[in-house]
Amino acid sequence: MVVDLHLLCKQGQRNKRIGPEPTRYETGTWPVTDEVAEEAIGGRVYLHAARAEEAYYGGTIKAWHASLENPKRKSFEYVVDGPFRIRCPEKWGQEKAIVRR
Q1: What is the largest CA-CA distance in the chain?
Q2: pTM for the predicted model, two decimal places
Q3: Are 23 and 81 in contact (CB under 8 A)?
Q4: CA-based nearest residue to 7, from 38, 41, 53
């Protein structure tokens, strides 16, 4: 099963461009299990400034890695593509929502 991740991320914070490709980014770290992180590969990430707002950025998740400081927190590499200005269709946790499809 593939999951999409909706993350609370104020614009410009906890999100950075990586590598030579202008569309490849990495999120900050988020409390996600290894199982969910694996399921998210091939899914989509959506970055929201607030729960009630549409995402301002997002794309297809290509990889993840655990934080060195706290392995329970994961960063996600993604490529900006397709439509991403959507609202989260599920209930939010403290800083994220996981949408299974």
Answers
A1: 36
A2: 0.93
A3: yes
A4: 53
Q: Alpha-carbon distance 41 to 82, whole Å? A: 16
3-class DSSP assignment, residue 7: strand
- Cβ atoms of 86 and 54 within 8 Å: the answer is yes
Q: What share of the chain is helix, strand, coil (3-state, %, to 5)?
A: 5, 45, 50
Partners of 46 in beta bridges: 6, 58
Which domain range does residue 20 map to? Answer: 3-100
**From the CB of residue 9, how many other CB atoms can be counted at a distance below 10 Å?**
22
In the chain, how many domains are there?
1
pLDDT in tens, 67-87: 999 999 999 999 999 889 999
